[in-house]
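Sanity check

After download, print the first record. It should look like this:
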Amino acid sequence: MPAPQETSSEPWQYTLSLPNDPRAVTICRRTLRLILTLHGLSHLTEVAELVATELVANAVQHTKGPAAMRLRWVAPVLRIGVWDTDPRPPAPTALAATPNPALESGRGLTLVEECTERWGWYSLGAAAQLPDTNGKFVWCELAQTA
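Expected structure tokens:
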């Protein structure tokens, strides 16, 4: 593997198109790790992998069509976004005061909200520059810390 680069102040962006396949989650996580390492941002990897995994898993589980993950760096912010074909808004599940460790789903967007500086979503229309012109784009931002 090539040596990691110093953190760049130059903006960059990658988009990874995904089929509706559970293996897409692992592929996104590994691709994200490689990109961040090569751009000298490996210190963001753990949190970035967690939130990207949640967003991609939601797209794969709750839609029938393809999806895409977009990574965008504009120093000092990494934006992770996931497009899917379902136009309905994402709905975070309210966590109980005493979390139930037996629950295996329903906490993803709450984790995204707690682990990132900002998150949101928007509906896509005809001006979309992603694989399809419908659906939604869910995004979150991680800021590089000194």
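If your output differs, re-run the checksum step. Summary of this record's structure: The beta strands are 12-18, 67-74, 77-84, 118-123, 136-143.
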